[in-house]
Structure formats: C-alpha cells, structure tokens
UniProtKB/TrEMBL annotation:
SUPFAM superfamilies in UniProt: HIT-like (SSF54197)
Protein name: Histidine triad (HIT) protein
Span of domain HIT: 13-97
Organism taxonomic ancestry: Bacteria, Pseudomonadati, Chlamydiota, Chlamydiia, Parachlamydiales
Molecular function as annotated in GO: catalytic activity
Coiled coil: none
Gene3D superfamilies: HIT-like (3.30.428.10)
Length: 141
C-alpha cells in the first residue's frame, strides 16, 4: 500500500525521504523546523512503531537534530509529537535560538509566523538535504 500523507501536512515543503520518514519543512523563517513523518499508514502514536521501525525512527531523529545543530547553529532543539489536530504520527524537530521571537516559550505559544521567501526556503531545504544525505551514509535501517 502506498504511503499517504495527512491533508493537514500538504502545505509543508517536501525536503526528502529518509529510509523510514518523510522530511518536511515548516514555513516559518524564525526557526529551522523539520517535521518527520514515518512513511507507514495508520500510525498515530510512537507506541505504534515496531521495534525495528523504532530503531530507524530514532536514528533519523538524531540525524534531524544533528542537522539543525550543525547547519543552523541552534542553541537548543525542541522535539514534539502532539497530534491533536493531525492524527497521523509526525514529529516536530525545531531549532531554537536564545534570541528567537518565542524564546524561552514554545513556538506554539508565539503567534508571529513569517514565511520564508522562495529563495530562502530553497536555500534552507538544500542545506538540510545535503546534511541529511551525508548523515545517511551511516545508514542503520
């Protein structure tokens, strides 16, 4: 069965497919903000992952965090799986900075959202793709 992305995630920019997860970019230029979506239908919770899927997911989550720390020099990383509005399992991985508009609160508490310009979005996506492709050389899945 082909993987189907939940309609609430359609507006996110596609970055690339990792061995287990699809990587999307949230369109908010204040934060490098990735969304990892396991490419398996009918997942709602992390508990739904099999042990081998969990191993792959954890590796890819580490790659996403490493990417945000190294490429964007984030001061901190927020990771969240909320799913109240979008029932498909997806994990937010957000690079945070001591001087970002929402610091020290969560990004969801901050209503200011400035979109990337098309050029800036393409540049960010390319940086993320390049780093993740490099990290995938240590493939575990």
């Amino acid at each position: 069965m082909e993987f189907t992305l939940h309609q609430n995630l359609f507006s996110k920019a596609f970055v690339l497919d990792l061995p287990f997860c699809r990587v999307l970019l949230e369109d908010n230029c204040h934060y490098p903000w990735l969304i990892l979506v396991p490419r398996r239908n009918n997942l709602r919770l992390l508990l739904d992952l099999t042990p081998s899927e969990e191993k792959c997911f954890n590796q890819e989550l580490k790659w996403a965090q490493t990417t945000l720390l190294n490429e964007f020099k984030a001061d901190h990383i927020n990771v969240g799986a909320i799913g109240n509005k979008t029932p498909q399992l997806h994990i937010h991985v957000i690079g945070r900075f001591l001087k970002d508009p929402a610091w020290p609160n969560t990004v969801w508490d901050h209503k200011v959202k400035d979109l990337y310009t098309q050029d800036a979005k393409e540049t960010v996506i390319l940086k993320i793709k390049n780093r993740l492709n490099h990290l995938m050389q240590d493939k575990v899945c």
